[in-house]
Amino acid sequence: TPMTRRTLLGTALLxxxxxxxxxxxxxxxxxxxxxxxxIVGSANFTESxxxxxxxxxxxxxxxxxxxxxxxxxARDVYVKALQDGSVNLVPEYSGNLLQFFQGAxxxxxxxxVMASLRKAVPA
Length: 123
Prior knowledge:
mainly alpha
């Protein structure tokens, strides 16, 4: 499914990575896929892999089945993986994600970075 603004903002909010689906797999009201596996990935550096593993283990403790796809590659590679649905969650930093989509930004605090990111992420 195509990447949505919600997907990338969820990514940033987690450390901002995000579910890449029109359904929320964590939704318990029956409208999401609920029992579907989530695929957690990481960028190709150790810190990203450690944070991704923390996410994966935390989600597993609440009963979500996790598949791992670590060391995917650089940002442009794992953003494409989010877009094509081959990965559902990748740890990301909100400021770096903003730079990826917008380039230079004057946003310098959490609130302004998140506001700018909401505008910069493709619809």
